[in-house]
Design a protein that fits this description.
By secondary structure, the protein is mostly helical. The chain has helices at 4-31, 48-54, 57-87, 90-94, 101-104, 107-120, 127-151, 155-163, 168-197, 200-205, 213-221, 227-256.
């Protein structure tokens, strides 16, 4: 018979690992409500940093840029993925493997490569180049998810729709697209989270005119930790957590279907 403490080794190790991962995040959330500017200890509860967060024009501009880039990256990634998967020729289907390279190649290498291309083509850095770089990154996630869902569809449903007189366009919008909806929504949430949190591509490809939230946080903490950054990070953590939860729920539903 195994001793009682042998059964507690694995749970204890896992618990310590989770503490190591989440204690810094918990400390950040707690200090965002601290009454003093310096994070030297708890001095009382206050919401003043959240007030400064939501009244800062610079933060709102950075948030606007991040949301514009994220939504454009989601829309263009999904559109290109659907066209490639559903309407692509066998040649296009064969080159879908190239999009997986964005998941394998280190992001800093991808960022430097894109920066070199933009410089070679004399394209000024800004929101446009930032959107292009995030679309390229997003395709590495949307193409595999959409393609995996597409090949699992029952072709008899598509054939039945065509046999009953529906055009290919009607079949796509009334049969194919609803069946792909869970995968499209799940991949869009994933790309949105990745784009909203991305720093490396934004740092290399945005230039001086388009500052995103991660870049704003980086510029602020270079001069020292700020409670406003703690508050901003807490808000972003809450939003990302909700989106990740929705993504996981949709992925589970996709597997069931």
């Amino acid at each position: 018979m195994r001793p009682w403490y042998s059964k507690a080794i694995l749970p204890t190790f896992v618990g310590l690992a989770y503490l190591f991962l989440y204690i810094p995040i918990i400390v950040l959330v707690v200090l965002s409500f601290n009454a003093v500017a310096l994070n030297l200890g708890w001095q009382g509860f206050s919401l003043q940093w959240y007030y400064e967060l939501f009244t800062s024009a610079e933060i709102w501009q950075a948030l606007t840029n991040s949301l514009v880039v994220a939504f454009c990256a989601v829309a263009l990634s999904l559109l290109m993925s659907v066209v490639l998967v559903c309407y692509g020729s066998p040649l296009l289907h064969s080159i879908r493997w190239f999009f997986y390279g964005t998941l394998i190649v280190p992001e800093v290498v991808l960022a430097v490569s894109l920066l070199s291309v933009f410089s070679f083509l004399s394209i000024p850095l800004g929101l446009t180049t930032l959107i292009v770089s995030h679309v390229l990154l997003g395709l590495g996630y949307t193409v595999p998810i959409v393609y995996a869902r597409y090949i699992s569809l029952d072709n008899r449903l598509l054939e039945a729709s065509l046999d009953l007189g529906a055009t290919p366009t009607q079949t796509f919008f009334k049969i194919t697209l609803p069946l792909l909806a869970p995968a499209l929504l799940a991949s869009s949430l994933l790309v949105f989270i990745i784009s909203l949190d991305d720093f490396i591509l934004s740092f290399f490809c945005s230039g001086a005119t388009a500052q995103t939230l991660p870049m704003f946080i980086f510029s602020v903490i270079r001069s020292g930790s700020s409670p406003v950054v703690n508050a901003l990070s807490t808000v972003m953590l809450m939003i990302s957590s909700v989106l990740v939860f929705i993504f996981c729920a949709l992925q589970a539903r996709t597997r069931i279907l």
